[in-house]
Every structure is written in C-alpha cells, then in structure tokens.
C-alpha cells in the first residue's frame, strides 16, 4: 500500500526531513509521511536521514526503510550496518530492516555482522533477522502464513513470527521470561501474547521488562506502546526514569507512554524532554508534539495532502 503524491509534496517532505534547522518533531512529521510513499526520491531522503547527527531520526529512518520492505535500499543498509562509527541503535535498525526486507542475499550480510559487531544488541538483532529469513523460506508456499509473517494485526512487520495459537498464556509467559531460551523464541512468545491481549498477557509482558537483554526489553516497551494499556504505565515510567537503562529501551518507553497518554505519563514526558541523552529527550519531544496534534484534532502526518491509493 502506498499513497500518491505530487512531486512538489514529495520535495517538500524530503527537504523538511533533511533540514536540521527544523525542530525534531517537524522532521518526524515528514518522516512519517514519507514512509507511505514509494520511489527513488523518498528512498534517497530516508537513506540520507539514516546518516543524520540525530541518532533518533537516523534509527527511525532505517526502521521505516525496513517496514517499507524496499529491496533497493539493501546496499545502503548494508553500508550502514558495517559503519561502526554509528550508534548501535542505528546499526540495530539496519539489521532489523535487512531481516524485514528478507532477501536470501541478506543472509551473508547478517552473518558477517553477527560474527563481527561489537554491540550485543546488534548481534542479537542479526540472529533474529537470520531466523526470520529462514522461517520465511519455510512458509513461502503457504500464502496465508506468508501474510501472517509479513504484516501483523498491529500493522507492523515484526522481527519474529508469533508462536502458534495453541500455546496458553502461561506457556507463553514461561518462554518469554526464560533466560535460557533463544531470542527468537522469546520474541515469538512476546508477539503471541500481544496478539492474545488480556490482563494475563499484559502482566507477562510487563514482567519481561526485567529481562537480561536490552534488545528484548526495548521490543517489550515497543509492544506495550502498541497495546496502549494503562496497566503498563508504572513499569514504563520506571524505565524512562532509569538513567542507567539503555537509551534504546528508554526511547521506546517514552514513545509507549506517549501512546498511553494518561496525565502522569504526559507529566513524565515533560520532565524528560530535558534528559541529557538526546535519544531520550528527542523521543519525549516527538511524543509530546504528537499528543499536541492529536489534542487539537490535527494530523501529525502531512498525508492530508494526498489521496490514498491501493497498489
Ligand atoms: Fe528497534
Ligand atoms: Fe525506535
């Protein structure tokens, strides 16, 4: 699915995305609009944004390229993954994007990074992406399953396929919290619990915020944002407050609190908009701006300028 847009709109969005004199929230508005477009100009702009001094914008651009599943972005994502001068959060998204695009040729790229990247969160992402590509190969003949693997009910291309429906919440909880299980198994349990919903699932997901892996914790915070369940706000607040937590995890907690948006969450975002870690402060800034748009009944994205078009 994509949106049609005029060349003028496209140019406006690309310029805005790359204009570092603009507030970060304005640049995110452009990014969120560009990810619905296809073609070389939006792709080029997003690729340039993956090199932005704002690690938050850079990682979001890489994430968007993965969600767009655009094979033409692969060579640039490969260069991104192997550029060790970049923040691990950016390399992590490059690896995840290569998994989401899912081409067979991405396997050797991911294997090389798995063997060489100094950051654990990047290596774990490679491990997941490799398994995702493997799984995709196995279900290729079954179109229903294929669709299931590609886009979730939450409209995200998930890094793992949810565990099959026959597992109980208790079984899924055990896998998610089991430090001995491999990352893919735990991710699969996490997405199955998310799709299942309900109190037991949410409390299992919240409990896994204490997992040993920062990568898993960040995905858990992301999923709690998708669920928008107030029962998670205390735990997410604790994550955002914890200055010793990985910025990737605090970032997802800030975004999740923005989508829960109760009074306490908003107050906390206002407090941490001054955090010394820019990934965190900018996450709060973007989340607050999105809420502001929502409150005034306006669209955060610029897509009101275009008409949806099914492709
Ligand atoms: Fe991520
Ligand atoms: Fe993120």
Automatic annotation (TrEMBL):
Catalyzes the hydroxylation of the N(6)-(4-aminobutyl)-L-lysine intermediate to form hypusine, an essential post-translational modification only found in mature eIF-5A factor. Fe cation 1 binds at residues 59-60, 92-93. Pathway: Protein modification; eIF5A hypusination. It comes from the Eukaryota. InterPro entries: ARM-like, ARM-type_fold, Deoxyhypusine_hydroxylase, PBS_lyase_HEAT. Keywords: Hypusine biosynthesis, Iron, Metal-binding, Monooxygenase, Oxidoreductase, Repeat. The keyword Metal-binding applies. It catalyses: [eIF5A protein]-deoxyhypusine + AH2 + O2 = [eIF5A protein]-hypusine + A + H2O. GO terms for molecular function: deoxyhypusine monooxygenase activity; metal ion binding. Fe cation 2 binds at residues 218-219, 251-252. Belongs to the deoxyhypusine hydroxylase family. Its EC number is 1.14.99.29. This is Deoxyhypusine hydroxylase. It holds the Pfam family HEAT_2. It is an enzyme of class 1 (oxidoreductase). It comes from Kingdonia uniflora. Its cofactor is Fe(2+).
